[in-house]
Design goal:
CATH architecture of the largest domain: 3-Layer(aba) Sandwich
Bound molecules: adenosine monophosphate, zinc ion
Number of domains: 3
Number of strands: 14
Radius of gyration: 25 Å
Oligomer: single chain
Strand content: 15-25%
Number of helices: 17
Mean pLDDT: 93
CATH superfamily of the largest domain: HUPs
Largest sheet: 4 strands, parallel
CATH topology of the largest domain: Rossmann fold
Helix content: 40-55%
Length: 459
Amino acid sequence: MAIQLHDTLRGRKLPFEPLVEGEVTMYLCGPTVYNYAHIGNARPAVVFDLLARLLRRSYKLTFARNITDVDDKINAAAIATGKSIDEITARYIKAYNDDMGALGVLPPDIEPRATRHIDEMIAMIGTLVTKGFAYEAEGHVLFDVSSNSDYGALSKRDLREMIAGARVEVAPYKRSPQDFVLWKPSTPEMPGWDSPWGRGRPGWHIECSAMAKKHLGQTIDIHSGGLDLVFPHHENELAQSTCVHDGAPFARYWLHNGFLSLDSTKMSKSLGNVLLVHDMVKKIPGELIRLALLSAHYRQPLDWSDSALEGARNMLDRLYGSIRGIELSDAERSSADPPADVIEALEDDLNSPRAMAKLFDHARTLNKSTDDEERKKLAAEILAAGDLLGILQMDAEAWFSGSEDGELSAEEIEVLLEQRVEARVNRDFAAADSIRDKLATAGISIEDSPTGARWRRSG
Ligand code: AMP
Ligand code: ZN
């Protein structure tokens, strides 16, 4: 069966056919690097990493995930912290790659940085002006949305309704409230580059259009990102790129992941409910977080909670439990393919929950089997599926020694005790008790004292 993918523009699932047979180009809008990535930001990185792994089985894939390293939020972070822009972007690019790496996200083939593509952006903006799709006003260059009759097709918005319903205060230099910035002037203390329209910096949308074109060509196969990017970011990228290219398609398939909420609430810094991957990976195995992110279909909303993590832990316990103690030679391990029904589920618009259900069927068969050869074959296939999904990368014994079965290290005990204190502060006594029980199972008794909890090994 060919891979099926849901395309946001056409609004349905379609057989995937790349422009050039046997080759695929894919672009993912990457992070704006001014702070650590939260668990919601990790969702597109993980789900599209899984898609990249799947595509690489059948195609020669070129996957670009950009870095937005010029943005007003970065400028604001530099002013707020007194650090240079370069210091901030370098720090958060490294943190992003380390944190996503801990979740098993493989590096993309190309990681273009916006600041390294200013010439390409200026050239693209120049073409849009020459062709009559953009205009200059007070040092800004704006895209004229009325020049593009397809504007709104991706996000299914009607331009006239948008204009009628515009509540934003319209900048005086805009001909229409929906016109968006391609280039804007910079004051001397802000980052800026010389251009035909004076010293300035690019708008966010043109960055991706220019980087996608430079590295992947004028028509790309797959453009991906989170649902919130459909409008305005992707709508605007689509308008710019098709107008520059005289109507040639920009992306053949648009893929968008659903949003992640935290205990049924939108994650927001002002509410203080933001989970940073950087903190989480210090306490929780990366592949457990990854599997929890893949436990819902990528287009569905995903509510993140302790029970989502517990669910993923149980799944990994079951899978590691099934393969535990089965010795495989390198040849047995490397020659195995993932089970066909796991691949089929993933090829059906990346149905990761169904792929996991299929994997459990195989684990159950393995558990029941008494035939050593069959057990080995199934274990090798389960591990091959793990390689594709980016899980089961640990030794089974190491997995269990990090959780219930083995002895906990002092560091792990301290982390659990910290989590227990946190749970009590939040009056989540069920969670606090379950941590105490977990410690007790591992032979650790705790005594609460006015200065905090003390622990000792009782067994
Ligand atoms: P940003 O750095 O805000 O541009 O976000 C980077 C990526 O994370 C984009 O693809 C967003 O769509 C995605 N994203 C941000 N918040 C969430 C969320 N809560 N759930 C899922 N994806 C998100
Ligand atoms: Zn983008």
